[in-house]
Amino acid sequence: MMLDLDVHLPAIAAGDADAFGRWIAGAEGRVRDSLRPYATRVDTEAVLQETLLRVWQVAPRHAADGRPNSLVRLAIRIGRNLCIDDLRRARLAPVEDDDLDETRLETFEPRAPDPLLRKLIAHCHEKLPDKPAEVLGARLASGGAEPDETLAERLGMRINTFLQNFTRARKLLAECLEKHHVNLEAELR
């Protein structure tokens, strides 16, 4: 059972970045897992980063509802809404409500990391061409703390070039994993 991360809420609401970091350490996996139904059609890493930023911004006004992990549940809702917004902008069909079973998400515990899958991802990352690898590495290293514009500037790229390289990195990484018989659809659920 997951600990009630709302214990950090008063400190977060007061602007304590360390408390927010502790909250993220406990909540990130659960929020990330809640975005899996969208992962094949939305950049869920970007959505996760935006979700955490928005949680930080609204936390001072958030009132816990008396149930555990109200801030985590708010983050899940924010993330889903951002995914739906992205799908609408791209004019894609939304994910069916059956795929978003609230009970399943509230009781879901993240899977343990698969060390073989991690090795394969690292292998595929090493095979990327220089620029896509550099862009993907920069985004991963920032952990969502910096906007893409800042990362692009640091790498001496225009934002469009940065985003094209990121898209290319994702595509090549997915192709490499599929060549090694990784079922991305199953892994992202």
UniProtKB/TrEMBL annotation:
Claim: Transcription regulation is one of the keywords in the record = yes
Give the Gene Ontology MF terms in alphabetical order.
DNA binding; sigma factor activity
Is Disulfide bond found in the keyword set? no
Question: Domain of life, per the record?
Answer: Bacteria
Q: Give the protein name, as stated in the record.
A: RNA polymerase sigma-70 factor (ECF subfamily)
- One record GO biological process: DNA-templated transcription initiation
Show the stretches that span the lipid bilayer. Answer: none
- Keyword set for this entry? DNA-binding, Sigma factor, Transcription, Transcription regulation
